[in-house]
Amino acid sequence: MIRSKLRTLLLGGGSAAVMLATALAPATASASPAPGATATAAGFWSCTVPPGYTFTSTTNTLNCGDSGFRTYYFVQPPSDGLWACTVGDGFTYSSTQNTLDCSTGGGFRTKYLLRTPKTGLWACTVPSGFTYTSTQSTLDCSTSGGFRTKYLLRAF
Fold this sequence. Notes:
Strand order of the largest sheet: 1-3-2
Number of helices: 1
Strand content: 25-35%
Number of strands: 9
Largest sheet: 3 strands, antiparallel
Structural class: alpha+beta
Distance between the termini: 66 Å
Radius of gyration: 20 Å
């Protein structure tokens, strides 16, 4: 009985929030962010991931194909400290998380905390132009469970 009332309250509150957000959103000709996502100045929703960009979230849409649902990507340029679904050239990562944010066909995928390589950074990979001076075994870098090596970077 209490669960039923709580569920009704939560559903009603969520519906009210969506209606309020819809009423307050300005009408524009551009594509709006997918439900539950926020746009940033550098990010936008796209049917593909352009070269030099990464994506931070996905959703299904009817906008990107002739028939049926397709993956819609929230793309933005990679940057230091960004949680992203891919690691672009010139970046490494220092932590991972298992998430549905990056899913392109269902199921959990790895999301990476992007970092600009520099001397003194503990990173999960050793990028070109760097070596390492120490290692540690950690779960921070795990992409499939279990311990992985983390490297203390040093530029050549």
